[in-house]
Amino acid sequence: MSRCCSILWAGVLLSVAPLGCVHSQSTLGDHYRNWVDPAWPQRYNYAARQAVLAPFAQQALNGQFLNHTVWNWHFETGTDRLNGAGIEKLNSLARATPQPPTRIYLQTARDIAPTPENLDKLSALRDDLNARRAATIRKYMTTQLGPNVEIEVYVHDAPPPGMPARFGARAFADSATGYQGGIGGGLGGGGAGPTTGGTSTGGATPGTAGGTTGSMGR
Prior knowledge:
single chain; 218 residues; mainly alpha; three-stranded parallel sheet; two-stranded antiparallel sheet; 6 helices; 7 strands; signal
């Protein structure tokens, strides 16, 4: 009797085993990948790296946008005639490496002074001057790059970048006397600077800030 039961159970197991193989195709590796991330930490390092670099990439694009802009002061006021600065600007773009840009930006014509007589048509006057200036840019770039290079000109109204000139001028003037930066340096030149014979030289020397010997670190 027991021998018959053993044979019966063996037959049942043999008949069920193939069904289990058919319905369960997962392997030990599949179970492992379902519980852990096999791409750790590379996947997360990549996401973190992109999050850090993305703002710098946008900053670089903003700088390129400004560098490829032809501003109002590159033209004679109120006209589509390039001045010397405008010609040099386009020359620099034509010589850019690894290749010159084919998309150039143009500041909208803000140098048309509004008056009571032209307020109702100021927008049309700007559009007309923008179109003529864009044509001038394309015509000049054709002389530099050849007629087969198509130049696109896009008009924008972004604020011109800049900074107060006195900061750069002060730093340049103080570079010959040992420029120093510091909290007490006023405009970045070390305050009033050291004195010689009772007259300020406008600079700063090592160990001084604004003509007074520093006491930090004592």
